[in-house]
Specification:
With about 350 residues, the chain is of the alpha/beta class. It has helices spanning about 15-25, 45-55, 70-80, 95-110, 170-175, 190, 225-230, 230-245, 250-255, 255-280, 285-300, 300-310, 310-315, 320-340; strands at about 5-10, 30-40, 60-65, 85, 95, 120-125, 135, 145-150, 165-170, 205-215. Strands 1, 2, 3, 4, 5, 6, 7, 8, 9 and 10 form a 10-stranded mixed beta sheet that branches.
Length: about 350
């Protein structure tokens, strides 16, 4: 059995997928690289097959009909034979020294007989044209170099969350919790790092800058204009997360720090949905914003009050055009500070 399965969802990725794959090959025989060709129309599938021929004991090419990022992640998980599962997008890459340290740590944990549910490491925003690259670190919020549970988690700053780039999850945990991401929908990475959390008991934080998250490719899903154009998909993901939190309420609310973290994460996703709807400037999208908040209210009144009455929730409901302008300016300040989009 492999130590780690790494899925690379690829759609028309011929011009950049090589850098991603090459960065993962130093993992050697401990790692299974699953290149998921999600119905590409360029040379992506051919490149995947070529890597499989060159590295038959490490690389597996998976070809499927187009179903979107979530569908590719699902396909990777279905084929994964490793003890742990990681997703690396085809335009991103990993740092070799940090990669080797992660594999060494995972081997040591397994050799010690421990069960690990989730490993967390840092990621770097590789933003096109930026002189400095922001690093998302967790050393102030998480214990280092030890296995810990939710009771030992400290305070996360606003705007700082455990993202798909940060995590390696136990493969069987993902299967046991029934994770299945929706197809033909962007932004499902938020579900990937949300739904497994109530099942995560043992975590480990390694303070290394492992994942390099590239921002700047034209048409990238985190581009603001693209997000506004795909706002219905963002809302769909937002509602799935709302439904899940309500459905798993008893399991989540029994752990105070897990509850706090998941509520805060849902809050920021809901704020992003709201600000994109405001930023679009159309009456139709302002109605969608009202409908989203009404959906939360009808689903769970206490959840609605928590999200609505916080600082961020209040800032999404300032009255009139002037209020909406203040909301947008506040968002711009946060965007500059946290360097997203």
């Amino acid at each position: 059995m492999k130590l780690l399965s790494v899925a690379i969802p690829c759609y028309n990725s011929e011009s950049y997928m090589g850098k991603c794959i090459e960065s993962l090959l130093p993992g050697g025989e401990d790692v299974e690289i699953l290149i998921v060709d999600d119905g590409s129309t360029d040379r992506t599938g051919e490149i995947a097959d070529d890597y499989e021929k060159r590295y038959p004991s490490i690389v597996k090419a998976i070809h499927k009909e187009n179903g979107g990022h979530g569908s590719a992640v699902n396909a990777g998980l279905a084929h994964a034979s490793g003890l742990f599962y990681k997703v690396v997008d085809s335009d991103d890459w990993v740092k070799e020294s940090a990669y080797r340290k992660i594999l060494e740590t995972l081997r040591d944990i397994i050799a010690g007989g421990e069960t690990l549910d989730m490993m967390i490491s840092n990621f770097v925003y590789e933003k096109e044209g930026a002189k400095k690259h922001k690093v998302m670190k967790y050393h102030h919020a998480l214990p280092q170099d030890k296995i810990f549970g939710w009771n030992e988690v400290r305070h996360f700053h606003k705007g700082q969350y455990i993202l798909m780039h940060s995590v390696i999850l136990r493969t069987n945990l993902l299967r046991e919790c029934g994770l299945k991401l929706p197809e033909h929908t962007f932004y499902v990475d938020n579900i990937f790092v949300f739904e497994p959390l109530p099942f995560v008991k043992k975590m480990y934080y390694l303070d290394v800058n492992f994942y390099r998250y590239y921002i700047g490719r034209e048409g990238q899903s985190v581009n603001e204009e693209v997000m506004i154009g795909r706002i219905d998909q963002q809302i769909r993901v937002n509602k799935i997360m709302i439904d899940y939190l309500v459905e798993k309420r008893a399991k989540i609310y029994g752990k105070r720090k897990l509850k706090k973290y998941m509520l805060n994460y849902l809050e920021i996703i809901t704020v992003i949905s709201s600000i994109m709807l405001i930023r679009s400037g159309t009456e139709e999208n302002l109605e969608k914003k009202a409908e989203l908040w009404q959906y939360i209210r009808q689903k769970d009144l206490s959840l609605y009050m928590h999200l609505r009455c916080g600082v961020l929730g209040n800032s999404m409901h300032l009255p009139g055009k002037g209020g909406r302008k203040i909301s947008v300016e506040g968002y711009k300040i946060c965007r500059r500070f946290f360097q997203f989009n």
